[in-house]
């Protein structure tokens, strides 16, 4: 027993927590199956890798700040025009993410823009990418606070380092000129360095009015659209439909 505790202690000093946690079962299994030293070593190292992968996944999922869980499995594609199941299957190879391309979802409220963007974000986390989700209003609040509040600065830095940033609900509320400027700077920083998913109920033509600065809006759209896939969704609101059912 002393030997066992000594080994656990060594494993913990080496920060091999995955092996330390599973040592008991790993040893029992090796003894039972009479596997070779090499197979045993390979098995415990794999345990550590699995443990770390799982931990990273959980950390990335928590760090994404998804407001709710949404998955493709629950999405009824026949209710919406402008995106097909095979479109989303193609997106799941994540070449667009590797190439720092953006996805833009446009359409009226309740059509599934947020649902789709969360489902994509979720799969991206599972595939090992880092993702940040923010509603545009909160994102702007964070950008304003970043200089003076540690937690906001921390979040903004995470967004700057993330592989994918999902910016939800552009267009519901007008953005002040100064705020739009902060937002523009962020988009410029992310441009060609990472991917952005945008959801908006407003067409491009109406963005300038919402942002209060035409020149800046054009420059921002230029960056967002340069390497991008645009999905113009239409159909009936799922929210209203559900009420009628
Ligand atoms: P939007 O962001 O376009 O306003 P949401 O994605 O928030 O719409 O969708 C509103 C609600 O309806 C959510 O609960 C979402 O899960 C659901 N929903 C929307 N479209 C679909 C769909 N095609 N299939 C299944 N659920 C949907
Ligand atoms: Mg939405």
Characterization of this structure:
- With 245 residues, the protein is an alpha/beta fold.
- The protein folds into 2 domains: 2-63, no CATH class; 72-244, 3-Layer(aba) Sandwich (Rossmann fold), CATH 3.40.50.300.
- The chain has 12 helices and 7 strands.
- It has helices at residues 2-13, 17-33, 37-64, 85-91, 95-98, 113-126, 136-145, 150-161, 177-190, 207-211, 214-226, 238-244, and strands at residues 80-81, 102-106, 131-135, 164-170, 195-200, 228-232, 234-235.
- The strands form 2 sheets. It has a 5-stranded parallel sheet, with helices on both faces. Strands 1-7 form a two-stranded antiparallel sheet.
- α1 (2-13) packs across α2, α2 packs antiparallel against α3 and α7 (136-145) crosses α9.
- The radius of gyration is 23 Å and the shape is elongated.
- The N and C termini lie far apart (64 Å).
- The mean pLDDT is 94.
- Adenosine-5'-diphosphate binds next to α6 and α12.
- Adenosine-5'-diphosphate is lined by residues 70, 74-76, 79-80, 107, 109-115, 199, 238-239.
């Amino acid at each position: 027993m002393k030997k066992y505790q000594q080994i656990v202690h060594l494993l913990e000093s080496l920060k091999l927590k995955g092996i330390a946690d599973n040592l008991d079962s790993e040893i029992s299994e090796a003894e039972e199956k009479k596997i070779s030293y090499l197979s045993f070593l390979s098995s415990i190292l794999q345990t550590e890798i699995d443990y770390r992968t799982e931990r990273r996944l959980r950390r990335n999922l928590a760090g994404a700040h998804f407001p709710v869980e949404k998955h493709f499995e629950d999405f009824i594609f026949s209710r919406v025009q402008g995106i097909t199941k095979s479109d989303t299957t193609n997106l799941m190879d994540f070449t667009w993410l590797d190439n720092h391309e953006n996805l833009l979802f446009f359409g009226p409220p309740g059509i599934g823009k947020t649902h789709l963007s969360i489902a994509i974000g979720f799969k991206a986390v599972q595939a090992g990418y880092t993702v940040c989700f923010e509603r545009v209003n909160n994102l702007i609040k964070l950008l304003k606070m970043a200089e003076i509040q540690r937690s906001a600065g921390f979040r903004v830095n995470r967004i700057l380092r993330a592989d994918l940033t999902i910016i939800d609900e552009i267009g519901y509320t007008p953005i002040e000129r100064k705020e739009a400027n902060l937002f523009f700077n962020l988009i410029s920083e992310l441009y060609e360095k990472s991917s952005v998913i945008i959801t908006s109920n407003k067409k491009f033509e109406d963005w300038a009015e919402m942002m209060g600065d035409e020149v800046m809006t054009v420059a921002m759209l230029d960056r967002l659209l340069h390497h991008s896939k645009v999905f113009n969704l239409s159909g009936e609101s799922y929210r209203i439909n559900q009420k009628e059912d």
